[in-house]
């Protein structure tokens, strides 16, 4: 893989909310606790921008900053820090009058057309386009961990394009982040005068809207304190996928693809005389099942011994539960309102001819169980998470087509590509910009592996339509 091309720092500035605030704190809810700490999400929005860097700095950057400042006045926790004091104190978000968000501007000579495409591209190159806000930049004082909530970066590819990237702490979920990005882009698009979107749907910071009848907070808090004891080691010696030769690629599943997968799965299900087969399967279920089975087939095809074949493979996804808890929660609730869902299969049951159908069955059951009881087995989430990486291997879903990320328009038009930078053991999901009703699946692979994986996927799609 080629060495990343030159990137030049143009400017690094601190943007404060337009209205000042006194020092305040926002408590974390019980649903924030499993994700509290040095867990960050990184997303990139690519746009066509046929102007030189100096044009961006003189005309576009001032509007971006001004609209960001106005937006932060409504999303003020994003300018603050997550404070994680020692036990028995709970973590919380602190805001002060000095809060700012770092906005970095970079000029890049990299290939915009490649980086904003679905083709495999170096994970190292993508990493240069996200703001440097990670474990290594976190600070500790009096045994209190302090984690910035958010940082932003704009990378200009002179006369070709622009990438606006966000790194944010998982003290908020994807829906909260999407609400912020769409609010910011809407205000920016209007030149800082139209607040219609925010006036219609302001963020809700009221933690009282979430109820905890099962007493999960006590369980999650204990597990949070256990996890907290590992942070110093993680902060001191982080190793990530950029140390190896990884690429990120996107595979688009069109409506014809997902409909074919649904028919194939249901036909095989009924052929086995299973009377409990569902009448329909969602495109989420069949796409995830198909990708999971294809990845295991590709990565484990040379494992022939029985000991390897009986190892467990884990699949985990998060589901938004703002409309699933039996009582009203505002769509614009700010924080985490997620439940975690798991599916487990033996490796041999994913590698074989029935791997896709087996995967569809267990993912469909996990979805069905979640709809009946969103927090089923929630007290075991951490135990399952640790087990995934000790006893087997895992695939975690990030993103969601329901976030409609391609509607984030700052005034340059819709994004040409929205990307997530994530580890090897994740797959990212988004709605397709080019295929109506389609799904974009982002995968991180070793550079030598992608062709084999793509071949397995394309052959599987062909079979599903035959």
- Poorly predicted parts: none
CATH architecture of the largest domain: 2-Layer Sandwich
Radius of gyration over C-alpha positions, nearest whole angstrom: 22 Å
Question: What is the CATH superfamily of the largest domain?
Answer: Chloramphenicol acetyltransferase-like domain
The biggest beta sheet, please?
7 strands, mixed
**Whole-number mean pLDDT:** 92
The CATH class of the largest domain is identified as Alpha Beta
Span between termini: 37 Å
Number of helices: 14
**Portion of residues in helices?**
25-40%
| Strand fraction | 25-35%
Structural class assignment: alpha+beta
Q: What's the shape? A: globular
CATH topology of the largest domain: Chloramphenicol Acetyltransferase
Q: In which order are the strands of the major sheet placed?
A: 7-12-18-17-15-13-14
Would you report the number of β strands? 18
Overall number of domains: 2
Pfam family, one: Transferase
Keywords: Acyltransferase, Transferase
InterPro entries: CAT-like_dom_sf, Plant_metabolite_acyltrans
GO molecular function, one term: acyltransferase activity, transferring groups other than amino-acyl groups
């Amino acid at each position: 893989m080629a060495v990343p091309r030159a990137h030049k720092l143009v400017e690094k500035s601190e943007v404060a909310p337009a209205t000042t605030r006194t020092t305040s704190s926002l408590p974390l809810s019980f649903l924030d606790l499993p994700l509290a700490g040095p867990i960050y999400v990184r997303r990139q929005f690519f746009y066509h921008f046929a102007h030189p860097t100096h044009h961006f700095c003189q005309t576009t950057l001032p509007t971006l900053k001004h609209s960001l400042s106005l937006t932060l006045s409504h999303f003020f926790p994003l300018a603050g820090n997550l404070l994680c004091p020692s036990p028995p104190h709970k973590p919380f978000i602190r805001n002060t009058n000095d809060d700012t968000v770092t906005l970095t501007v970079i000029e890049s000579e990299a290939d915009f057309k490649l980086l904003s495409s679905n083709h495999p591209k170096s994970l190292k190159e993508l990493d240069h386009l996200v703001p440097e806000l990670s474990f290594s930049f976190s600070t500790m004082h009096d045994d209190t961990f302090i984690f910035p909530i958010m940082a932003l970066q704009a990378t200009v590819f002179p006369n070709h394009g622009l990438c606006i990237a966000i790194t944010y702490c998982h003290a908020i979920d994807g829906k909260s982040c999407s609400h912020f990005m769409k609010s910011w882009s809407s205000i920016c698009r209007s030149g800082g005068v139209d607040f219609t979107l925010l006036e219609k749907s302001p963020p809700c910071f009221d933690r009282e809207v979430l109820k905890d009848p099962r007493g999960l907070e006590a369980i999650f808090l204990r597990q949070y304190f256990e996890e907290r004891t590992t942070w110093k080691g993680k902060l001191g010696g982080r190793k990530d996928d950029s140390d190896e030769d990884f690429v990120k690629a996107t595979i688009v599943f069109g409506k014809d693809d997902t409909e074919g997968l649904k028919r194939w799965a249901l036909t095989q299900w009924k052929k086995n005389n299973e009377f409990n087969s569902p009448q329909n399967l969602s495109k989420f279920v069949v796409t995830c099942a198909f990708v999971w089975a294809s990845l295991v087939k590709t990565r484990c095809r040379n494992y022939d011994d029985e000991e390897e074949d009986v190892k467990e493979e884990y699949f985990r996804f998060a589901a938004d539960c703002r409309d699933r808890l039996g009582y009203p929660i505002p769509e614009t609730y700010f924080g985490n309102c997620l439940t975690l869902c798991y599916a487990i299969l033996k490796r041999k049951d994913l590698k074989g001819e029935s791997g896709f159908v087996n995967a569809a069955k267990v993912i469909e059951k996990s979805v069905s169980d979640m709809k009946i009881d969103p927090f089923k087995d929630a007290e075991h989430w951490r135990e399952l998470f640790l087990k995934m990486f000790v006893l087997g291997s895992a695939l975690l879903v990030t993103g969601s087509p329901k976030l409609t990320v391609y509607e984030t328009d700052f005034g340059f038009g819709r994004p040409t590509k929205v990307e997530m930078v994530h580890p090897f053991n994740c797959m990212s999901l988004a709605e397709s910009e080019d295929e109506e009703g389609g799904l974009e699946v982002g995968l991180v692979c070793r550079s030598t592996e992608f062709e084999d994986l793509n071949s397995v996927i394309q052959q599987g799609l062909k079979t599903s339509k035959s």
